[in-house]
Each structure stands twice: as structure tokens, then as C-alpha cells.
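Per reviewer request, we include the raw input and output of the structure prediction for the construct analysed in the revised manuscript.
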Amino acid sequence: MAAMPLRIIERMSVPPTSGNGLSQQCHQQDRLDRSVWKIAAVALFGGLLAQLDATIVNVSLSTLATELHSTLQTIQWVMSGYLLALALALPLSGWLVGRIGAKRLYLWCFASFTLLSAVCGLAWSAHTLIAFRLLQGVSGGLLAPMAQMMIARAAGRQMARVAGYMALPVLLAPVLGPVIAGTILQYASWRWLFLINLPIGVLALVLAILFLPDERDAVTAKRLDWVGLALLSPGLGLFLYGADKIGESMGRVLFVAGIVMMVAFLADARRKRGDALIDLRLFRRRAFSIGALTQFLSNGAQFAGQFLIPAFLIGACGRSSAEMGWMLAPMGGGMLVTYSLMGKLTDRFGLRQVAAGGALLTLLATIPFVYMAFHGLDLVMLELALFLRGMGMSAIGLPTMTAAYMSVSKPDLPMATTSMNIVQRLGGPTFTTLCASFLALNLDGHAPHPSVSTPYALAFLALCLIHVLTLLASVGLPGRHAGVSSDRQD
């Protein structure tokens, strides 16, 4: 949804003409109907609320663990459980839209998301908070694709102009989230981390009621792969929960059960082909499969880092949760810088070079955390590392998705979008859970007095390994000219 894909869309959507005809056409394209901007405003509000909610919670996990008398290994499921539920709710979106319509489903989900924010603020234990976040993740997972679909329907060929503004939540959330979280934790109860969503959610809900069009006539019922959903959802849940409890006999049983269910899902999806929850035939295309793998690893590294860095600053460096706002803000600034240059970078260097460069920069920016875990916190090094890490992470996603989607034929784009979103979003809970389990294992077996930061150093080394894998995967993406359309079969 940024510079490179937008330019591609613009080139494809404007037929060649000349003279006054071209001038008139360009003038018409510059004028968007007010209803399109109203729909975009609703979607922008919803996206900003969801992104802020995720960022605020990510930087507050240490405080939540203390306030709810839990451990980091358990409380990280407030984030991982939400991300897992969000990913597994994605396939339901198209099916539910076909049953009740986009506007009605959007209103139900937004109302549920807002109400569950209040319920999360009333949680009385870590386990109840995790349960409420799982339910909230289902609502959040259904919101994003519906917002994109409604904007695409309203804007049509002018989607390119509108899409750039829709990236605003992705850019603002990393900057505003830590600041809001730090302010709340300094002056109010942790419950306001969730209760703050209420007034914003109510306002956005009113705007949705007023501005979103009712498109019941455009609704068509779609089939849902219930067997695939029943295998994939519990299988992933058992796999991640078993990995979290791998030191216990029951944890190992659940871990194996999760693997068996996921293997069964793959076998079932291979048999059903295009009718499956995820069409595995898409992954035969090299650009798409490498893009999906890169997105999975990159998203996992990003969320694992958002868990480990605040945990390190609070648990090993003795910083307070209220300080997280200004300490983590440079990462959002780095994202803003890269995003503003993305069009020029991809045009000049190509998709693979930009994505691989971003992966390399993120790896190099993560190494200082290993050093600081062994030698102590250096604020200048911290802020510079966070800024560069933000720049690197922001440079990976856009070229990767562009290369993947442009290798897919137009009729396969809906399935490709769903499949890519599922794979991408599963990276967060997978690697956050694994890193949290690895950190907890080292903290349990390490005496606190010799070097309390050593377990965090090992965890950051594990994070570096994920970044290495991301770099290796991104090197396989198409280059400047080759591969972007080589697999495509329009």
C-alpha cells in the first residue's frame, strides 16, 4: 500500500491517450468523490485503533506481569494469543461478508472490539485477560480485510491515491503507542491501557454507521473450508502452547498433537486444491513462496523484538514502564524515514535489494542489544539501534509483498491475499512464544547475582538468528526487473 505498488497500479489503471483527452482524464482522476474519503476515514480510524492497541499492549507486558502476579512467559500470551486469534479469524472474513454483508459485519466486529476492550480493562487475572484478548483478536482479524475491501470497492481505479493514506496507522502507531502507554502507566492504572479504546471506539462506530454504504446487493455467499479451519486453528494453538510448556510432559504431548494436526491440514489442503482454506498451489510459484516465508520471518522477528526489548529495559536495566514512551519512540521515527523514501529506493535498486538491505540493517541494529545485555545499557547506542531497526523493518514488508502479489494471476489474488495474511500474521505469535519460552528457560536456570542480563543476551542472539533467516530468505526475492512478473499467468 505504499509507493512501489501504487505506481504499478497507476500505470495499469490509466489507458494511453493524448492531448486534451489526457489532461481531462488526469483532472478527473484528481477529483475523488466525498463518499470515498468518508469510507477511508472510517477505515483509517479503525486501523489506527487496532494498531495503537497492539503497540500499547506490547510495551506494557512487564507491568501487566507485575500487576497480575504472573510471569513474562505467561503474560506474553496477551500479545501472542491476540495475534494468533487475529490470524485464524482472517479466513472467516469472506465467508461472513457473503452471509450478512460488509457494513453489518464491520459494525458488529467494531462494536465487539470496543466492548472487549472494556472487558479486558476489567480482567481480574492474567488468564482472564488472555481469554478476553483471544476474543478481541477474533474481532480484530475480521476488521482489516473488510476495511480494505470496502475502500477498494468505493475507490475503484483511484485506489492508488487512497491507499497511501491508509498506511498512516502503521506509521503512527509505533510512535504514539509507547508514548501513550508510558503516560498511562505513570499516571493511571494499567486498566486504562484498554479502557482508553472506549471513547475512540464509540466515535469510530458512529462514523461507520453514518458513512459506510450498505452493499447487500453485492453480497454473494462463499463456501468455507470448515475441516481445514478445524485442523489449522487448534493445531497451531496446541503447537504454540506445547512449545511454551515443552519442559512438561503434557506440553510435549500437546506439541506433538499440534504438529500432527498441521500435517493433516496440509494433506487435506493439497487434496482440496483451490477449495482449501489456503491454496497450496500458490506456493509453487517461487516469488510467492519466498515472499510468504520472508513475511513470516520478518513479522515474527518484529513482534519478538517488541516483546524482548521492553522486557530487557525493565527486567534487566531497571527502567520503569513509564519510560518506555520516549525510549522506544525512535523506532517509529526510523519507520517513518524509510517509508517516505520507499518509492525512490525500490525504483532505483529493485525489490530484492531493498528488502535484503532492510533485513541486513535490522540484523546489524539488533546486535547492539546483545552487547548491552552483557555490558550494560548505553542510551545513545539504544536510541540509534532502535532508529536503525525501525528503518530496516519498514524496508522489508513492502517490496516482499509487491514481489509476491505480482507473481500471482488476477483471479488468484483474493486467495493469495488471504494466504499471505495468514502466513504473515502467524509469524508474530510463533516467534514471540518461542523467544519468551527460551528467555524463561534461561532466567529459571540462571542465578541473578553474577549477571542478570546474560539470559537476555542469549534471547537477543536468538532474535539475531531469526533476522539472519529473514535475510537469507529475502535474497531469493526477484531483482530489479526479473521475476516480478515471470511467474504470473494473467
